[in-house]
């Protein structure tokens, strides 16, 4: 695949301590994404492209936390006033905590924009573009469009949640969308959620390339 770095954004999703081994919502091997991501961000920005990162950034007592709902356990799925089928999670990525920090192995030097999401108490946000009510924008599409970017390479955590929703929205907004396949890791809850997310993304016209294939195409 031929990629024009000048029109390319690397979008790094939620590479935060709480999603890495030892964190509150640890994803298997989550920290393994950092080395391919660092290689991609160095080359893409070195050639004039952009890198942006998202940061899951919840207030205490956030609606997505099981602990905010009497008697509910992590993994339960509930309807909230703004969002149907909200999955409840352990408390994670609380604003200002160590768990919400980016993983220390992630190279942030070339990241020129950080989008914090999920900070409203009553509304979760998986996607980098729209919150879970599917209407409230984060503003990322304006930034991308304003820079003349047409291709977005998505990497990070979690394949079946924030990467999935970000990629699907990105494609719907009309950008060429590529998943860096060795630079994502998933939660895997409920069963088969990673496999299902990958097949849905492929059906939507999202490309899957390894970080080496992407580097070769730049
Ligand atoms: C995420 C669950 C809850 C993610 C964020 O980054 O994929 N998953 N909050
Ligand atoms: Zn979250």
In short:
With 218 residues, the protein is α/β, with parallel strands linked by helices. It has helices spanning 34-46, 140-146, 162-172, 193-203, 211-217; strands spanning 8-13, 50-56, 77-78, 86-87, 111-117, 151-157, 176-185, 207-209.
Summary tags:
two-stranded antiparallel ribbon; 8 strands; 22% helix; binds zinc ion; globular; 218 residues; binds pyrazine-2-carboxylic acid; six-stranded parallel sheet
Assembly classification: single chain
The side-by-side strand order for the widest beta sheet comes to 5-2-1-6-7-8
Number of strands: 8
Cofactors and ligands present?
pyrazine-2-carboxylic acid, zinc ion
Q: Name the structural class.
A: alpha/beta
Low-confidence stretches: none
Please describe what this structure looks like.
- This protein has 218 residues and is of the alpha/beta class.
- It is 22% helix and 20% strand.
- The protein has 5 helices and 8 strands; from the N terminus they run E-H-E-E-E-E-H-E-H-E-H-E-H.
- A 6-stranded parallel sheet has the order 5-2-1-6-7-8, with helices on both faces.
- Strand 3 and strand 4 form a beta hairpin.
- The longest helix is centred in the N-terminal third of the chain and has 13 residues, at 34-46.
- Bound molecules: pyrazine-2-carboxylic acid (VGL) and zinc ion.
């Amino acid at each position: 695949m031929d990629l024009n770095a000048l029109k390319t954004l690397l979008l790094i999703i939620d590479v935060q301590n709480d999603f890495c081994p030892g964190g509150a919502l640890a994803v298997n091997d989550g920290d393994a994404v950092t080395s391919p991501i660092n290689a991609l961000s160095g080359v893409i920005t070195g050639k004039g492209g952009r890198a942006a990162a998202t940061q899951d950034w919840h207030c205490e007592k956030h609606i997505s936390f099981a602990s905010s709902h009497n008697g509910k356990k992590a993994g339960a799925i509930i309807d909230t006033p703004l969002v149907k089928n909200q999955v409840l999670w352990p408390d994670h990525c609380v604003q200002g905590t160590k768990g919400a920090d980016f993983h220390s192995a992630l190279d942030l030097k070339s990241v020129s924009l950080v989008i914090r999401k999920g900070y409203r108490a009553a509304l979760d946000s998986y996607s980098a573009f729209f919150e879970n009510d599917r209407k409230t924008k984060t503003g990322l599409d304006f930034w991308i469009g304003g820079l003349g970017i047409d291709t977005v390479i998505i990497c990070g955590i979690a394949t079946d949640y924030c990467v999935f929703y970000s990629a699907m929205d990105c494609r719907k907004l009309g950008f060429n969308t590529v998943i860096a396949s060795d630079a994502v890791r998933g939660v895997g809850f409920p069963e088969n959620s990673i496999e299902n997310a990958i097949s849905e993304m492929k059906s939507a016209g999202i490309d899957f390339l390894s970080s080496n294939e992407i580097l070769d195409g730049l």
